[in-house]
Design brief:
30% of the residues lie in helices and 23% in strands. It has 824 residues and is α/β, with parallel strands linked by helices. The chain has a five-stranded parallel β-sheet with strand order 3-2-1-7-19. It has a five-stranded parallel β-sheet with strand order 9-16-10-11-12. Strands 22-23-26-25-24 form a five-stranded antiparallel β-sheet, sandwiched between helices. It binds flavin-adenine dinucleotide.
Length: 824
């Protein structure tokens, strides 16, 4: 009777044993497990600590007794394999309870020893209160300390799956958590802008996030707690530290037996899971596998692959020809109310493999907006630029992320393209999805890009392109723009674009954006048909805003998160409001700017001092309502999150709410705007003296040049410019640039102006051109009035470099943010 010995009795080992028995009733199967338990739910351990899994026994998927009785497997817990003698085909086993060693021969050997938590080589990692999480006893120890009320503050080191799950579950136990991560982002399989969505949610959920901060040391504090020293020089107080910086393969046995190992110590196997010795199989976290996207070997320590590999090894041992196809890295993790999932390669992986790729980001509703509870689901697709074949995808959202990632994982494994995603027929009824499923929409946008219907630019490319002259147009509604926009963006709502597109300089390239990209796509199509060179910002302002914001928590300014945001875990019922609301507003299912517009209308009907209770499911509502209240003189009294909803309590201020207006918030930088109407030298000098003064005081300055004032911005020599006769005559009659300006009084046929220039020179007062240059160097925004330019026939080529051309809306937007406006 052939004997198969299996080292490791949890995910891979127990599965292999069960499959062997199903295939061969006569086989002798011995499972050797170092720990106390076999076939336990290591994936459930964080939830046992947090209390979501209440019964410890629920973690025991099977027991040695059950395995013996039901599948006739000889399970030996607390038995450790010390050595493999391949020549003799036997292993040396230590019975850890009896303290005795014995040899055990095998016909086939399966290694499924897993991976152990990495423990960094820094002082203090062995102090009491410092834990890793791999086994049930690890979870018991962590839970016991919390149950005993000894953990008020914890530091979780590492922002991977286990670190994030532990952060959430510690918060669920009322622990204040600081997450320390060496990289600039959590969840390495995500690209940065998708991880930024997770960062925001972590901060909003009450976790203090310290990114780009490696663990340096842990030491005992004077109060008996721990002090965590991070690489950025900060110190974090803690009662408990959980180390979750990754895992390393348990391949010592394989190495000692001379089996071939990869560069990071993983066992090398073939498609049947055989090691370099055909009688020895290996699987699970200990092996390296093929990345089907890049074709390179890598390691993916996940339970799904371990289970599939176990089945294939068992089939091969029992005479089958099953082959492992590689690991696609399909994974999912819950981070408070958010679900984060990935499959395939991310941008970093593709760059590393030298594979060309394109990306698109879409933000869709998980189900139709009119059915309650719809929430945002963000999808990033990575695909080949030539044929659109999928290379990877990332999904971050609140609902149905599992459905989306599994669809995309299936598509990826089937070799589908983004064009195929357009055609996928997916289930739909209002509570579950949309007639255009988020996956279809991701496919449409990517396919539009490949077909050339839409030209796209990524948020990370914008800065360099703008430096090179790209203009930016925001086509969202007034209220959305007022709640935040890209610095320096022109604002033309989509509905006005057909009548106002001429405000855009046709000689420049323009990027259009809206909240998620849909309205910007329409704007792009309009502008393109008017001959403009236009690109759409992938993922819209939603992606740009989250990627550009400060990612780490404000560690010096108390606990982070949206003002008043509850760090408490989701509860079934809404917390009782402290104050009775006069009106309640249900804005669930509405998308930005819907909830804010609804709040605005509801507040109009209230008396000063009365309270509104507004509930919304749009995740951006928490931020938007806080900003809206601040700008409109109302007070956000409280903000709660429960059951995927955000509830805001707003007290109406004495100011009647209207369209958002500038906040006189002390923390906002002050700004000055000027309308420069005159082309008199003295007035021009005054305006630039004031501008330079304001800039020197750290203030923002925007100068809007209109009518005669436009002449200040003219070049002396503009080269060949095509003009009508009237335009040319206007041009001759008006001064060309600062050098041609004259004084408003005492000009005396030019003598007064000459004298003034000499006096300025002798007294070392900067000339007008020097003052203008200095203002521009220091960041003043000089805007030439588009309408006046057209009227007077002044062409863009006639203006000095660095001047923007804009409409009144651009200027009004700046005055909204300024605390003083001058008319010169
Ligand atoms: P394991 O399941 O770790 O089993 C290896 C066993 O081998 C261990 O019990 C070990 O004691 C034993 N062993 C090692 N050396 C010897 C020896 N010399 N002699 C005898 N016995 C030995 N994956 C997911 O896909 N989704 C999740 O949500 C998820 N969550 C996780 C949460 C936590 C806290 C942890 C720790 C892991 C999680 N994983 C998750 C990863 C998943 O558990 C592993 O990928 C999977 O268990 C790997 O299976 P394996 O058989 O290779 O190793």
């Amino acid at each position: 009777m052939a004997r198969t010995v299996i080292v490791g009795g949890v995910a891979g080992g127990a599965s292999a044993a069960a499959r062997l028995r199903r295939r061969d009733e006569a086989a002798e199967i011995v499972v050797l497990e170092r720990g106390e338990y076999v076939s336990f739910a290591n994936c459930g351990l964080p939830y046992y600590v947090g209390g979501a899994i209440a019964q410890r026994e629920a973690l025991l998927v099977s027991t040695p007794e059950k395995l013996r009785a039901e599948v006739a497997i000889d399970v030996r817990t607390r038995h450790e394999v010390l050595r493999i003698d391949r020549a003799a085909k036997q292993v040396l086993v230590r019975d850890l309870l009896a303290g005795q060693d014995y040899p055990l021969s095998y016909d086939k050997l399966i290694l499924s020893p897993g991976a152990q938590p990495l423990v960094p080589n820094v002082p203090g990692v062995d102090l009491p209160g410092v834990y890793s999480l791999r086994t049930i006893p690890d979870a018991d120890a962590i839970k016991a300390m919390i149950d005993a009320g000894r953990v008020r503050r914890a530091v979780v080191v590492g922002g991977g799956f286990i670190g994030l799950e532990m952060a959430e579950n510690l918060v669920a136990r009322g622990v204040h958590v600081t997450l320390v991560e060496m990289l600039g982002q959590v969840m390495a399989p995500l690209d940065f802008e998708m991880a930024a969505l997770v960062h925001r949610h972590l901060r909003d959920s009450g976790v203090l996030l310290a990114l780009g901060s490696a663990l340096k040391a842990i030491e005992l504090a004077e109060d008996g707690g721990l002090v965590v020293h991070a690489g950025d020089g900060r110190q974090h107080q803690a009662d408990m530290v959980v180390l979750a910086i990754g895992v390393q393969p348990e391949s010592t046995l394989a190495a000692q037996a001379g089996l071939a190992l990869g560069p990071r110590g993983h066992v090398i196997v073939n498609e049947h899971l055989q090691t370099s010795d055909p009688d020895v199989y290996a699987l699970g976290d200990a092996i390296q596998v093929l990345n089907p996207v890049t074709g390179a070997p890598y390691a993916v320590p996940l339970a799904g692959p371990a289970n599939r590999q176990a089945r294939i090894a068992a089939d091969h041992i029992t005479g089958g020809d099953a082959r492992y196809r590689g690991t696609w890295g399909t994974s999912i993790v819950k981070v408070f109310d958010l679900t984060v999932a990935t499959v395939g390669s991310n941008a970093r992986g593709l760059q590393g493999a030298g594979l060309p790729y394109l990306t698109t980001i879409t933000h869709s509703q998980d189900h139709v907006a009119y059915y309650p509870g719809a929430t945002q689901q963000s999808i990033k697709l990575l695909y080949r630029p030539d044929d659109g074949r999928l290379l990877g995808s990332q999904v971050v959202g609140y609902n149905a992320v599992d459905r989306t990632i599994d669809t995309l994982a299936t598509a990826l494994q089937a070799g589908m393209t983004v064009y195929d995603l357009e055609h996928l027929e997916l289930a739909y009824a209002p509570p579950y999805g949309a007639a255009k499923d988020p996956v279809n929409i991701a496919g449409y946008v990517a396919a539009n890009r490949l077909r050339g219907d839409s030209h796209m630019v990524e948020w990370s490319e914008l800065a360099a392109l703008r430096e090179a002259g790209l203009g930016v147009v925001d086509v969202r509604e007034e209220v959305e723009f007022a709640l935040g926009h890209m610095e320096g963006a022109l604002h033309i709502p989509l509905g006005q674009l057909r009548t106002r597109y001429a405000e855009l300089d046709p000689a420049r390239q323009w990027a259009v954006y809206c909240k998620v990209g849909r309205r910007a796509y329409l704007a792009e199509r309009i502008l393109r048909q008017h001959g403009y060179d236009v690109v759409n910002v992938s993922g819209g302002y939603t992606t740009y805003e989250v990627a550009m914001e400060k990612q780490s928590s404000d560690l010096d300014g108390g606990r982070s998160g949206v003002a008043g945001a509850s760090a408490a875990p989701s509860a079934e019922a809404a917390p009782e409001p402290e104050v009775q609301a006069a009106v309640t507003l249900d804005a669930c299912g509405l998308q930005c700017p819907g909830p804010i517009m609804a709040v605005y209308k509801a507040m109009e009907g209230l008396q000063p001092g009365q309270m509104l209770r507004a509930t919304a499911t749009d995740p951006g509502f928490a931020r938007d309502v806080a900003a809206w209240a601040e700008r409109t003189g109302n007070t956000l009294v409280d903000l709660q999150r429960y059951d995927h909803r955000i509830e805001a309590f707003l007290r109406k201020g004495l100011v009647v709410p209207g369209a958002p207006r500038p906040a006189a918030h002390p923390s906002e930088p002050t700004a000055k705007t000027m309308v420069v109407f005159s082309a008199d030298l003295d007035r021009a000098l005054a305006s630039f003296v004031i501008a330079n003064g304001a800039l020197a005081m750290g203030q923002k300055v925007t100068m809007f040049f209109t009518f005669w004032g436009l002449n200040i911005l003219r070049r002396q020599q503009a080269g060949q410019v095509s003009k009508t006769l009237v335009e040319r005559m206007f041009g001759w009659l008006m001064p060309k640039g600062p050098g041609a300006l004259t004084l408003s009084r005492l000009n005396m046929g030019g003598l007064g102006t000459l004298m003034m220039k000499q006096v300025m020179h002798s007294k070392r007062i900067d000339s007008l051109p020097a003052l203008m240059q200095s203002a521009m160097d220091n960041g003043a925004r000089l805007i030439a009035c588009q309408m006046t330019m057209e009227m007077m026939g002044i062409k863009p080529e006639e203006l000095i470099d660095g001047v923007e051309i804009g409409g009144v809306a651009t200027y009004i937007n700046e005055t909204d943010r300024a605390n003083a406006t001058l008319l010169i």
